[in-house]
TrEMBL record, chains A, B:
This is Maleylacetoacetate isomerase. Residues 5-87 form the GST N-terminal domain. InterPro entries: Glutathione-S-Trfase_C-like, Glutathione-S-Trfase_C_sf, Glutathione_S-Trfase, Glutathione_S-Trfase_N, GST_C, GST_Zeta, Thioredoxin-like_sf. One of its GO terms (molecular function) is maleylacetoacetate isomerase activity. It comes from Aureimonas pseudogalii. GO terms for biological process: glutathione metabolic process; L-phenylalanine catabolic process. Keywords: Isomerase. PROSITE patterns: GST_CTER, GST_NTER. SUPFAM superfamilies: GST C-terminal domain-like, Thioredoxin-like. Residues 92-220 form the GST C-terminal domain.
Length: 221, 221
């Protein structure tokens, strides 16, 4: 692919799912013009945005003349198909299944539990205050990361990264969790394999440049 | 593939994620010996099972001599790779992105919210009784299905099924939601496109045979 599409990425500085797409774009050498959807102001419920993303969820990746693409894992697979280098999935089906499984443990079984719409419901319907919400966040970040740690520590396929010695979708989805945990001042203990892999990822500019605090609209730390 | 692996599927009669794998196996003409993990008895927290699936989640698909595969969407992609007919993804990258996105709206943004581990937390820590849990289920089933309905009704790619006139991963993940809603006597109104597609799916034996009430261990209706 010599000329990339003129991507627009509907995004917000601090969201985990947008972070994943930013990392993949960076790794592939692709660029996207970001369009801010302020989740704190509730702009994701704007009728115009809901036409792009009926779930009111970001990211949404738009190419001129085509419907918006939503859901970070679907977007990552798409970017890997249209710009195959460097590959974000292993070559063998079992390896791909392992990478997609680790990615889903985080992007499906962990992150959807701590989104603004869930917070809104628990605040309104279950009386969650800030402390109860933080306990909820800690519960699911811990559950997800400890389960992934158990796999990474036990499975022979783990290398410098989650799967061997190259970055895959699993590393991108994994890094998207601590990237937002630090915003909420949450830490999970006893995950040495994850900590080791995260240090490797943070040293890669494609990851570092996607850091929430380096995005437009982020507060100074 | 002339000889299929001797799959074992760790499963439970009523789970949405296991249903998806059953449908895919059926569509591909593959078989798996099911091994029951009784989620009501808490067998998913058995130490032996946690070695296979550290998240304590089913399904897990096991081939002799290989680590267990977990996460339904990763398993579906794997089955589609090792047994390509009939294909469960469209041939074009944008079509695949759309199918994976619809699948993720249900398998990632909807279903993880209504799993036993979430119910356990809300019961213990937030005082949810049966009625509060049912309102929670209704909230997220409705949110997910209405968002998918909005897409299916608006987007030109929708056909007899979610994407054109062939079954894809999107239909399998979509059908996995009403398949369990009926167990909890939950209905979502005003989703005519989904209702139309579900009627098509139910007429296909690969879907009908995966119905929770047709599995070993299911109560009689």
């Amino acid at each position: 692919m010599t000329v990339q599409p003129e991507f627009e990425l509907y995004s917000f500085w601090r969201t985990s799912a947008t972070y994943r797409v930013r990392v993949a774009l960076n790794l592939k050498g692709l660029t996207a013009r970001e369009r801010d959807v302020d989740l704190i102001k509730g702009e994701q419920r704007d009728p115009e945005f809901l036409k792009l993303s009926p779930m009111g969820a970001i990211p949404a990746l738009v190419e001129p003349g085509h419907p918006a693409m939503t859901q970070s894992t679907a977007i990552l697979e798409y970017l890997d198909e249209i710009a195959p280098e460097p590959p974000l999935l292993p070559a063998d089906p079992r390896g791909r299944a392992r990478v997609r499984s680790i990615a889903a443990m985080l992007a499906a079984d962990t992150h959807p539990l701590i989104t603004p719409r869930v917070r809104g419901y628990l605040t309104k319907e279950a009386g969650f205050d800030d402390a109860a919400w933080k306990r909820w966040q800690i519960q699911w970040f811990t559950t997800g990361l400890q389960a992934v740690e158990a796999r990474l520590a036990a499975e022979a396929e783990t290398g410098d990264f989650c799967h061997g010695d190259r970055v895959t979708l699993a590393d991108i989805c994994l890094a998207s969790i601590p990237a937002v945990m630090k915003i909420f001042a949450i830490e999970v203990a006893d995950i040495p394999t994850i900590d080791r892999i995260m240090a490797r990822c943070e040293a890669i500019e494609a990851f570092a440049a996607a850091d929430p605090y380096r995005q437009a609209g982020a507060p100074s730390r």
